[in-house]
């Protein structure tokens, strides 16, 4: 299960919990709402996967990891963004750094991410199988999802 | 010359004035920073025209006309957006409505625009020749620009 | 194993045989060299899959099924097409109809295909799992390939 | 007027003559039917211009200049190609070289073209203003057309 350090979840009434995701392949799209590659490529791909693979034991999540322009990407702005770009899957807000406010948030630091977009892919047992910086090609991603969903839970 | 009701210009030290634009074809891209069609199509086209036609007696301007999600699209957010999307041409902030705050801004109302993106094209004499809601095709727009730039100032 | 009725194989020195393909997922791109959707979408996708998934127990094949403009799509034309479009996987020429020359070729008729492009996908046991007329989305196709390659040979 | 050395015109009942084109801006798309960049970019652009600018004193022409795979691109193949790709403007067949058959055709040699696609643009007086190898951007091409159509015939 993804160890995401999240201050708040949007687009969901439930806690995103270990119990809930167990047995599902989990995709986490780490993004910033004002990151061009995220808007042009990752969010459309995430929306598409969320729609196509809903019944396939696959859960798409977003993680809003703000590491620059913090004032321009607060929760109310993120909500407006998600409304305009029709993001329907749960999105967590990456916890702000305690030591150094206005810098890299906690999950982003923990995973040593290089920036956004970053894609995290977990298998049904909650093990992180892929962490990729930049956009992943549809064919390659589809192949990974087909492979991971075919695996049995151990 | 465009009669734009602007509270502040960004990306320019000068006032955008009649005298300055006289003799130039002027393109005004009216947008909202969280409008998907603006981000996907209009801003890239505006950037491209700004780069391609700089020496051609053509001036590209932006007008940020916020008619929804006002809190998410204030000046500091717009500045972050312009930095991330590499917008280098002058952008004016459409004046807020006096009577009814948080609704349609003044230039947008004056021109009876239907939404964003809207493109305003003025000839060298400052006369509004085209007002188009939605994205305009590159071939058609290039043709209009070639035609208007070929005209003499009257 | 695909029951393809082929008069000649190009791009391969070997016979494309049951023994050879057994244990592989097999994709057959049925196309005509002058079919716009084949050129714009299917051949590029086939080339990409051929390059990406070579080591993955996956075999890409082409089948040239000419059902119109027969004179314009003979073997020497097909060879020029394959050279120009960098088709590197084996391509079979669908056998001409015996009864009615210049009409629908034998494999196309046998499978009751509606036209080109058509994609045939076989699992590792040689069973036809998908027959799709028109272009298949990259995400969906990647998912199918990941699923089929994960299956054991029975 | 373009000095095109053409053995036969397709898609037109008239001779393409000086008198007919005088006063029109003339675009000549030089292509080979099995040239990938021609199929992917030039023919679609030519079709679009032919449809958009018909009433604008603009004539789109094609020139089929075969310099390789001659057997695969004879007239009957070209006709099938034009049918499939919905080419509705007149297309001339570049005259075969007399001295060296199966090499570069006469117009292509005369203009010292580097390959296909090549775009020739003539003003209303029949003067060649642009000769560009490779695909020309829509915005730039639209701009050139708008400029040339605005010129008076001298």
Q: Would you mind describing this structure in some detail?
A:
Four copies of one chain form a homotetramer. Chain A is α/β, with parallel strands linked by helices and 154 residues long. Helices cover 32% and strands 22% of the residues of chain A. Chain A has a six-stranded mixed beta sheet with strand order 1-4-3-2-5-6. Chain A is globular. The mean pLDDT of chain A is 92. Chains A and C meet through helix 2 and helix 5 of A and helix 2 and helix 5 of C.
How many beta strands in the DSSP annotation of chain A? 6
Question: Tell me about the biggest sheet of chain A?
Answer: 6 strands, mixed
On the 0 to 100 scale, the average pLDDT of chain A is 92
Backbone structural class of chain A: alpha/beta
Most extensive chain-chain interface: A-C, 20 and 20 residues
Terminal CA distance of chain A: 13 Å
Unreliable runs of chain A: none
- Strand fraction of chain A equals 15-25%
TL;DR?
By secondary structure, chain A is of the alpha/beta class. Chain A is 32% helix and 22% strand.
């Amino acid at each position: 299960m993804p160890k995401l350090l999240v201050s708040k979840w949007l687009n969901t009434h439930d806690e995103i919990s270990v119990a809930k995701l167990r047995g599902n392949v989990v995709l986490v799209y780490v993004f910033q709402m004002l990151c061009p590659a995220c808007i042009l490529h990752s969010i459309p791909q995430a929306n598409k996967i969320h729609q196509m693979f809903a019944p396939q034991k696959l859960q798409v999540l977003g993680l809003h990891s703000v590491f620059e322009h913090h004032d321009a990407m607060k929760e109310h702005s993120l909500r407006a963004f998600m409304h305009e770009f029709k993001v329907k899957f749960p999105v967590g807000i990456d916890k702000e750094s305690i030591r150094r406010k206005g810098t890299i948030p906690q999950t982003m630091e923990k995973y040593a991410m290089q920036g956004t977009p970053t894609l995290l892919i977990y298998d049904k047992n909650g093990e992180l199988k892929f962490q990729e910086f930049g956009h992943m090609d549809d064919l390659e991603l589809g192949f990974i999802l087909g492979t991971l969903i075919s695996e049995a839970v151990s």
